[in-house]
Design brief:
By secondary structure, the protein is mainly β. Helices cover 4% and strands 41% of the residues. It is globular, with a radius of gyration of 18 Å.
């Protein structure tokens, strides 16, 4: 989910592989967090590079539904043919709506593709506002369901708040989906690939930050504590904490890419996708699982 060209596909899948010379094979812990905020790795699953390399979401409604994933291979031909060529990290609402964020090379709008609990799909387009980046990296639906956060890429000090398409009665597929408020962050964040609500006022986010200058570590797991649950009528403030570096392990050397994130409230399990460098994107990219101690 970087520049528009980078976002279409991992370089190996696009046939443009350039292997780096340095391996990053160990996990480094960032600034100390309280015991309640310590997330420990408990396992991992292979992440398919075509269908599980961008984002993921646990589905609570209907019961016993499988987890959902996004990747270059999950974009329908009818969607990509209209220019929506990158899908980000999805989320679900408490009533069972599933929402995927899309962007295109046009740089004028973003699209949110929504599947209703009954299975039908609809599209909601947002025209970019002044100064708004064209990236549509993720969506995070508030526990209340009526409001949704979305993220841009690069170094940012905000998250954008929208009415949740398909859930909030003020939304319509035929009308522009407006930004209604902002989450102002007290610390800059870089290349956030996904966020998910843990409580009504706490988010966990995966950052693909390659520099490590903001928090002293690259690829951090971030926690954002909000002054209030977003309600679409007033801006709120978010306090940002770096909890740890995400796992960076592979048989190949080079640059890893942190991707989407999901918190399953039913099991209190956090999952984050980390794509391996070089040709190992095909073999040992992982969805890592964490629990809180």
């Amino acid at each position: 989910m970087r520049t528009t060209a980078r976002q279409r596909c991992h370089p190996v899948l696009a046939g443009l592989v350039t292997l780096a010379t340095a391996a990053v094979l160990s996990v480094v812990t960032g600034a100390p967090a309280t015991a309640a905020d310590t997330w420990n790795e408990v396992g991992s699953d292979r992440a398919d590079p075509l269908t599980e390399s961008q984002g993921l979401a646990s589905v609570e409604v209907p019961a016993n539904s499988p987890n959902r994933y996004t990747g270059i291979g999950t974009i329908p031909v009818g969607v990509s043919s209209r220019g929506w060529n990158h899908v980000g990290d999805p989320d679900t609402s408490s009533d069972g709506h599933y929402i995927e964020p899309y962007q295109s090379d046009s740089g004028t709008s973003k699209m949110f593709r929504v599947q209703a609990p009954g299975g039908s799909w609809s599209e909601y387009v947002h025209a970019l506002g002044p100064g708004e980046a064209p990236n549509n990296s993720f969506v995070a639906v508030t526990p209340g369901g009526s409001w949704m956060l979305s993220g841009e890429y690069g170094t940012m000090d905000r998250l954008l708040v929208f009415p949740t398409p398909g859930v909030n009665p003020a939304t319509s597929p035929g009308a522009n989906l407006p930004q209604v408020s902002t989450v102002h962050l007290d610390h800059g964040v870089r290349d956030v690939q996904g966020c998910d609500f843990v409580t009504s006022t706490r988010l966990l986010c995966s950052s693909d930050d390659p520099a490590g200058t903001l928090f002293g570590i690259t690829k951090p797991l971030l926690q954002i504590d909000l002054t209030a649950e977003p309600n679409g009528t007033a801006d709120v403030t978010g306090h940002v904490t770096a909890l740890r570096q995400l796992p960076l392990r592979s048989s190949c050397s080079g640059t890893f890419e942190a991707e989407g994130i999901d918190y399953d409230r039913r099991t209190a399990t956090l999952r984050v996708i980390v794509v391996s460098p070089g040709f190992c994107v095909l073999t040992d990219s992982k969805t890592y699982r964490f629990t809180r101690s």
